[in-house]
């Protein structure tokens, strides 16, 4: 009787081990890099198909993800956003002298916006990661394209390094902000 139990147990363990090896080979974890930067969450390759972390991928591509729960459908939307930085004399700039205070405005041109949004904002982030709001606005009507010029904004570029001006969109009032465009400027 003991011999039969040992035989059945050995057979069960062998089948379980073989199943685990097969399952592991059927789907493999893969690393995903976008523009040379590896994503923190990897993907999965199964039966020749890749499954990628959609929200993280969209965030890195500066795109929006719309989820339709009824249709069980995810849509990626990438609005085309161009930003220009203007000093008070209306000259454009992309670099500043470290330690200087500069008064400037941001002109944003948005098109191919194929969904309604709640609001948008423009921020600047210093080399240490401290974000400062330049201006934000709520959409009053549905538009697939619009232009926006911020009020003059006085900012002190205290340290040398890369500063990032970001245009972010909020799809609904309670949603998080999604960056859809970024312009970098250098303080030397």
Overview of the molecule:
- This is Copper amine oxidase.
- It comes from Paenibacillus albicereus.
- Keywords: Signal.
- By secondary structure, the protein is of the alpha+beta class.
- The chain folds into two domains: 2-61, no CATH class; 78-187, Immunoglobulins (Immunoglobulin-like).
- The protein has helices at 2-26, 54-60; strands at 27-30, 33-34, 37-38, 43-46, 49-51, 64-68, 73-77, 80-87, 95-96, 100-111, 119-125, 131-138, 146-149, 153-157, 161-170, 178-187.
- The strands form five sheets. The chain has a five-stranded mixed sheet, with no helix packed on it.
- The longest helix is centred in the N-terminal third of the chain and has 25 residues, at 2-26.
- The radius of gyration is 25 Å and the shape is elongated.
- The mean pLDDT is 87.
């Amino acid at each position: 009787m003991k011999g039969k139990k040992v035989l059945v147990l050995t057979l069960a363990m062998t089948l379980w081990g073989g199943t685990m090896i097969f399952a592991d080979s059927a789907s493999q974890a893969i690393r995903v890099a976008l523009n040379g930067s590896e994503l923190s969450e990897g993907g999965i390759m199964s039966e020749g198909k890749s499954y990628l972390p959609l929200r993280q991928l969209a965030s890195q591509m500066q795109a929006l993800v719309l989820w339709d729960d009824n249709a069980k459908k995810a849509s990626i939307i990438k609005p085309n956003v161009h930003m220009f930085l203007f000093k008070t004399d209306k000259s454009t700039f992309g670099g500043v002298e470290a330690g200087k205070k500069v008064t400037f405005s941001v002109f944003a041109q948005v098109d191919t916006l194929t969904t309604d949004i709640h609001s948008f904002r423009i921020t600047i982030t210093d080399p240490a990661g401290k974000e400062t709001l330049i201006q934000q606005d709520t959409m009053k009507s549905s538009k697939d394209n619009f232009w926006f010029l911020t009020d003059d904004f006085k900012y002190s570029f205290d340290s040398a390094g890369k500063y990032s001006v970001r245009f972010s969109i909020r799809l609904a009032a309670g949603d998080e902000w999604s960056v859809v465009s970024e312009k970098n400027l250098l303080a030397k």
